[in-house]
Amino acid sequence: MSILSGQRITLQEALDAATVEGSPQLYQKLANNKIRCLACGHRCVIFPGKRGICQVRFNADGLLRVPFGYAAGVQSDPVEKKPFFHAMPGSNALTFGMLGCDFHCGYCQNWVTSQALRDDAAGVMPSYFSPQALVEAAQRTHARLVVSSYNEPLITSEWSTAIFRQAKAAGLVTGFVSNGNATPEALDFIKPHTDCYKVDLKTFQQKNYRELGGQLKHVLWTIEALHARGFWLEVLTLVIPGFNDSNDELWDIARFLVGLSPDIPWHVTAFHKDYKMTEPDNTTARTLIRAAEIGLEAGLHYVYAGNRPGEVGPYENTVCPGCGKLLIERYGYVVLSYQLTDAGTCPACHLRIPGLWPNPAQSVPTGTRADIFQRRPIRVRV
Length: 382
Hints:
Blueprint: E1 2-4, E2 7-9, H1 11-17, E3 19-21, E4 27-29, E5 35-37, E6 45-46, E7 58-60, E8 63-67, E9 70-71, E10 73-78, E11 92-97, H2 111-114, E12 127-128, H3 131-140, E13 145-148, H4 157-169, E14 173-178, H5 184-190, E15 196-200, H6 206-212, H7 216-229, E16 232-239, H8 247-260, E17 266-270, H9 285-298, E18 303-306, E19 318-319, E20 326-331, E21 334-338, E22 378-379
Parallel strand pairs: 11-13, 13-14, 14-15, 15-16, 16-17, 17-18
Antiparallel strand pairs: 1-2, 3-8, 4-5, 5-6, 7-8, 9-12, 10-11, 10-22, 19-20, 20-21
């Protein structure tokens, strides 16, 4: 409960008040005041007075109401935490999240925000602000990116793009951190305003995706469509023992990505017990190294093992696939050395390394391993 203008309101009432009509690009009006939401792959048909699977997009008398004008949290994060390794390395990303999700992953690390209105233990009261205020917060904290994360940004695309319009006008890079359950309509809606897109490819088995509330085919389509539409794309797989860590499944993921482009960075990161999934063991560094080796053997040029700083050998670093030169050395979220040219090429063989690189290259901050304690998320007041 919260107090607003002297009245106690519930979280649902607060969220319903922080809405606008959805973009005409992201919903269709149907007969009898029903609507079809096009923001995510569920394509919910929503009856009057009812909600979509995400719980935060709803039908009010035949109009789609969508989240707008708030965040459940705003932090200045290392961009490597998203993780984006080929987008403005060493920079901070002002990261905002709303409430709600179209999946219900039992291991979600952001379940307090993502499972709001679905789980009584989840949810925080929103903080209200304007897009300009958030962009000013990014500038004040010297962030070079603005990123929508912490919940599923597809279901809050209208608010994200309102912020991104102003962020891009201010010279900032913009991005989504998403489960990849997209639609053509949603990708076309966000494309003019969104530079980077990180997709969680959670598994390569439909039975596992069904457990999480999604469909494998929708996520694979999204990855293909993002690549075809020219977003800067990076893909992450949280490697969970007994769930998706078999050699066969890791090979399937790697081959799929290679089939699109060997230049798509693939992050394999460590699971730790969280939320409702407490049975599997935490992922070992050895398992991550095995997954990374599979990715490279399959033909991917850039494979990264995450969440185990200093324990995964060379798999935190970016190496030129042409000549083998070490281009970016990392320790966790810290860039130890940066060797790319201003044009984003290898200084030894001049191969163009795909990504969004800072120019001039000297603007990339580098540090030491001890600096990992300084590169922590910082809560930001907007």
